[in-house]
């Protein structure tokens, strides 16, 4: 089996694991006092960060015209992220600072997927970045979103897990970046400005959130996927990558 065939074979279970993380977020966030709802589009911008694995799931639910529209959108090099979540965690653990993110010039544009009715045609397949952008107060009239600090910590932890899943698959699915460039890559075209995904290097959290975060992650890692807990699969991805060299 070629490396490309092996990666495609690994893609299907990885997509199941990804959906499990998405489902866990929906479950863990149940009962939060949110102001978000249909038609609230303030966070639907053209600066969505995702992995190639998430791009593969998104592509599976998109019409060709919408996928092409995403891919055709230009991305300014000045807004590209300079590191991933797991890269930053690894650098922090080594006592090093990650590269500073560039300050974008100008306001963000509108997500090219957004419909005229203010609804997202890719909603069931949307990436984690879209799912975790929630707010306790309405921000559609020019206000800013406001999240509980713990929500931010939990979202960051899930980003790290998703990146680990993408890294475990390898290939184009183990790259991360902004939506148009990731979609170009997963559709077999050249994706500019993409970053390599890395495995989990630990999940840091402030002391005041550690106990609650550990409880939530314990529930996440215990969720069954193909007869095994998700935590077992995270370790298995490391083992597979080690065997593959």
Query: What topology, given as strand order, has the largest sheet?
Result: 1-2-3
Binned strand content: 5-15%
The averaged pLDDT comes out at: 88
Distance between the termini: 15 Å
Q: How does the helix and strand content classify structurally?
A: mainly alpha
**What would you report as the Rg, rounded to the nearest angstrom?**
18 Å
Portion of residues within helices: 40-55%
Architecture overview:
- With 245 residues, the protein is mainly alpha-helical.
- It has one domain.
- 47% of the residues lie in helices and 5% in strands.
- The chain is built from nine helices and five strands, in the order αβαααααβαβαββα.
- It has a three-stranded antiparallel β-sheet.
- β4 and β5 (228-229) form a beta hairpin.
- The radius of gyration is 18 Å and the shape is globular.
- The relative contact order is 0.20.
- The mean pLDDT is 88.
Q: How is the secondary structure organized here?
A:
Elements: H1 3-28, E1 49-51, H2 52-60, H3 64-72, H4 85-93, H5 128-131, H6 149-169, E2 175-178, H7 179-186, E3 195-196, H8 207-221, E4 224-225, E5 228-229, H9 230-244
Antiparallel strand pairs: 1-2, 2-3, 4-5
């Amino acid at each position: 089996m070629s490396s490309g065939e092996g990666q495609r074979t690994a893609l299907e279970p990885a997509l199941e694991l990804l959906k499990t993380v998405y489902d866990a977020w929906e479950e863990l966030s149940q009962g939060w006092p949110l102001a978000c709802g249909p038609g609230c589009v303030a966070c639907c911008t053209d600066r969505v960060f995702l992995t190639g694995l998430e791009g593969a799931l998104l592509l599976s639910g998109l019409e060709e015209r919408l996928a092409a529209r995403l891919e055709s959108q230009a991305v300014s090099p000045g807004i590209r992220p300079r590191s991933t979540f797991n890269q930053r965690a690894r650098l922090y653990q080594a006592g090093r600072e990650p590269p500073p993110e560039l300050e974008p010039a100008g306001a963000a544009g509108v997500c090219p997927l957004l419909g005229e009715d203010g609804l997202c045609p890719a909603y069931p397949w949307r990436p984690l970045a879209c799912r975790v952008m929630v707010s306790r107060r309405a921000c559609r009239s020019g206000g800013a979103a406001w999240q509980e600090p713990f929500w931010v910590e939990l979202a960051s932890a899930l980003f790290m897990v998703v990146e680990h899943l993408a890294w475990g698959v390898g290939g184009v699915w183990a790259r991360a970046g902004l939506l148009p460039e990731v979609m170009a890559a997963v559709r077999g075209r050249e994706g500019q400005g993409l970053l390599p995904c890395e495995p989990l290097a630990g999940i840091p959290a402030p002391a005041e959130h550690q106990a609650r975060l550990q409880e939530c992650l314990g529930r996440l890692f215990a969720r069954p996927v193909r007869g095994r807990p998700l935590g077992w699969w995270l370790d298995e991805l490391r083992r597979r990558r080690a065997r593959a060299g």
